[in-house]
Amino acid sequence: MLEHAYFIPFYPLIAFLVIIFFTRWKEKLSAGIAISMILLAFVHSVFVLIAMLGRHGHPLELSMPFIEHPALKLELGMWIDGLTAVMLMVVTIVSACVHIYSLGYMHNDPRWSRYFSYLCLFTFSMLGLVIANNFFMIFIFWELVGLTSYLLIGFWFEKKSASDAGKKAFITTRIGDLGFIVGLLILTFYVGTLNYQEVFAKVQSGAISGGLLAAAGIFIFCGAVGKSAQFPLHVWLPDAMEGPTPVSALIHAATMVAAGVYLVARGMTLFAGSATASMVIASIGLITSFMAATIALTQNDIKRVLAYSTVSQLGYMIMALGLYGVDLAHGHHTAGYVAGTFHLMTHAFFKALLFLGAGSVIHAVHTNDINFMGGLSRKMKTTTITFFIASLSIAGIFPLSGFWSKDEIVASTTGHPFFMVVTLLIAFMTAFYMFRLCFLTFTGEPRDKERFDHAHESPKTMTGPLTVLAFLAIFAGWVGLPWLHHGFSSFVYHDVVHHAGPNYVLMIVSTIVAVSGIGLAYAVYYKKAISADALADRFKLLYKISFNKWYIDEIYDAVIIKPLLGFTKVLWWFDANIIDGLVNLMGWLTVKWADLKMWFDKYIIDGIVNGLGYICMAGSWAVKFMQSGSLQFYALMVMAAAIGIMLYRVTSIGFYFYLIGLVIVALLSVLVKMTRSDRVDAEPNIEG
Amino acid sequence: MEQQILTLVTFFPVIGVALLLLVPRERADTIKAVSLIVSFVTFLFSLLMYVMFDPVANGMQFEINIPWIAAFGIHYHLGIDGISLLLIMLTTILSVIAILSSWTAIKTGVKGYYISMLLLETGMLGVFVSLDLFLFYVFWEAMLVPMYFLIGVWGGPRRIYAAIKFVLFTMFGSLLMLVALLYLFFLYHGYAGEYSFDLLKIYEMPIPLGAQTYMFLAFALAFAIKVPVWPFHTWLPDAHVEAPTAGSVILAGVLLKMGTYGFLRVCLPVFPEATIQFVPLISILALIGIVYGALVAMVQRDVKSLVAFSSVSHLGFVMLGMMALNVQGMEGSVIQMINHGISTGALFLIVGMIYERRHTRLIADFGGLAKSMPVFSTFFMIVALSSIGLPLTNGFVGEFLILLGTFKANSTYAIIAASGVILAACYMLWMLQRVIFGKLTKPENEKLVDLNIRERLVLIPLIVLIFWIGIYPKPFFIRMEPAVKAILSMVHKVDRADVERKEGIHVAQPTCVGTTCTISGGGAGCGK
Prior knowledge:
Chain A has 688 residues and is an all-alpha fold. Helix content of chain A is 73%, strand content 2%. Chain A has helices spanning 10-23, 27-54, 82-105, 112-131, 135-153, 160-191, 196-205, 210-227, 236-239, 245-254, 259-266, 268-272, 275-296, 302-329, 336-365, 381-395, 401-412, 417-442, 449-454, 460-475, 488-491, 504-526, 532-538, 540-547, 552-623, 631-650, 654-675, and strands spanning 60-68, 73-80. Chain A is elongated, with a radius of gyration of 44 Å. With 528 residues, chain B is mostly helical. Helices cover 73% and strands 3% of the residues of chain B. Classes of the chains: A mainly alpha (688), B mainly alpha (528).
């Protein structure tokens, strides 16, 4: 089974193809095919996990060529190690839960088949991403999960906000992918391969310069920033909540958004090759985590609180991995790698549970706004209990999953005091906003009587998955108990097994932090000992910043989107008027040039021809008067000629006399013409 | 058969024209059937040629060389390599599809229309098979005539303006090309003592750099207008918007490729030093085209002109990859030529289908079509995604290789070009959102009928190709590789075998921008 692990992604792909081509019209059947194929993938993943446990995490690689060049080998292949096996489990479990849950949640949607086919396509892409053995293949599936995310966010495409959100998600993550591509280009060009192990071997052999490693690392990390919704590209994730809630649970909480974390973990050797790149990663993680936590404090949309919580937790993981890279670059093995990947797994379960629980609530009250909820614990037992379990888990309460993994995260900041303080602060805020959500939703008096009256517990198809996930939210973390010597840390490890062992001080500190966060929420929202409004008034500026999400969307809109759109308009004007104007001007000039030539032809060339004719005619017209038939005139002419010749012979100026004579004769003839106009019968008739 | 196959493929459509002339013009159905069959048989012949083609052999295949006007050394010299092979396949496929797509769209002057289509096919195929520059020129110009009629007679409201602009703009370039061609002709006489237009012979002639520069510019201008390289692109949106659907498909799918093909076949190998000298200029124009085309596409209100501007952007990628002057870039460039033909052709078909139903192409007139026309919307989406280069579709393979090749030559160019990929996502997805998503607000859109069998048949082959190239591009790369290497060996003046090793050496040095500075300083030459 292990050797055929590459087949795992194909189960959902088969389901997708079958639904699209054959069973699209039979909705129940489509859903059945989808679910059974996911379950098959899950079973196969279990076998892979068992086989890997048997091999003590010894990796396995298989590959086939995709595009072959002498200088470039792009391949499709699989790389199975402990991390892959764990991720396969996470993806198939959450996907299976979400599929089943959707049976209830989407039960009267007109596009059921389409919905399930998209879910299958997503699962295929996500599984492909997980088992990839090289950066090229992970990139392909990376883009495919982005596509399915786009399709599913905009699944209710009639809503403008949904299709807007889908577009925003796709484009924002693509901005990160731009960096990813550049990183791939750097690797291909300077390392000559994209295969993980070959790249890592080159990195470890020191064949690549530090600057280059940093550049490659940071560029590839850009992809993770986009996909895992890290600052400054986090803006798409909260909007992505426009999609159906099960989709949010699967894609935007448990799996796809974790792909960025997975990428960082997968490429750890590369990132750890440069302390700079690792520090960038850790800082981005910390900033994101802090910022998202502060925003989550004040949001009123149940899904958005969870979305910001997701962003914050992903930042946690990224920070832990980054710190591990920093430490490793300085030659120490620390807990960060295990912490990041461990939290990736536990978070997937409890966050999926939170989203599905929120979905169950939304299904009951038909609103996302917690101002219209309250007191729902009386109507929805299972949902309430499971939601509280998940909240305790994420807050980090002993002995739930979240406690163990969050503890590791805090442990990974050892040696970086600033990181540790902020991490604990985030843990406090996490506990607070989660329980604010819990108390406002499930306890107290219902704030919207009508909605409350119509509320009811969700059907079994929905509560079933909630129960399964609640079980995992409690126990999944136990595989990584610090006392276990062959637990998570010896199965999923980087480079060499690093086992940190229990750190009781940290455990106690983080428990105190979590409990005080919960306590504050209890005091404010359950006991109402402290007024929430008064608190908001007191810290008005901070409250406003938090409530308006640090104004980041507004800033992007003003700084990037509006100017860009304006610029496109300017360019369009430029194109239509300047460039095309020049072309048309050329045409116009040609026409004018032709006109000019025509004028020249008509008036100058033709004018010369006609002018010559005119001169001839005018000349002959003038001369004809000499032959007037008047004898005196002839005699005068003879006389004049004789005098002229004489003068010509004796003086040097004779010629001129002769000429003057001729002129006089011409004038005389005109005179004659004037006096005898009745004899003139032909006027020169020259057309102008 | 070996010798005659090219003649057969090229001139078979003319036989169809002869047949059509015999059919009375009232018998529209017969005319359509005859032209469809003729174009399909042409496609079958080209398929036969594809099968007979030896994918790994070097040099030209199916060559035929007989004197035509012997006194001037003009020969009927045909032959193809892998690049022309793929473009011929594209042409024959798109011709069948274009004819099938005009079935109901063209109602007047049916006979003249289909005759023009078939003549156009011969003209295009002729350009791709010619190895004699005179012949090349004849086909190049001959092709303009049917296209002129297609736009000018069967086009939209501003068809006359568009047709004249198209023809004059193209002619302007090709006349300069003619001058350079004659110069080359006499230069060859001075070199070899005989008159010849034979391209393969001209390849072997060394030309002084000064002369190369002028001739390169003349040829490049003709080709650049056809591509179109920014800023010679303004005839394109007009021609596309006014042309009938099939005309747009052929125009975008094949005619634009004549320009890029001309660069590959004539400019690069004949004027290698000049090419290297002009690499920065053309690369920068290509980059401007990529970004500019995408930005301007974003504000278009007419779907067709949006697609037209996206062509400017995509062809910028093709030129950029070619100008990388290395194997990856050039192979990416060739595959992107095919991709653009497929994806943009399909986009124009889709726009045509919706235009036939609604008689409008304004984005604002649509919305919510996914509800009334689900199959249409699915096809639209797949094609749009392939156009923005999503992995597993054809666009990704081409763009990735082009970026890779460009990165090798100049990392800054590659990074700028990659931003075009994002802009492409912006305008395509925005357009998709406004056309197929959202509520059905317009009552006219509610009762639209989904695609019929004929329309599906028109699109399905293209969709298959989109995924085929995206998932298994190997057959295409195998066939083009010897041809690409041959061109590169002529450009870099090295043996074919050395192309891999020597490539990139002449290319402009990477400039330093931020972090990339360390890259270019880091390990130049460790690409192997």
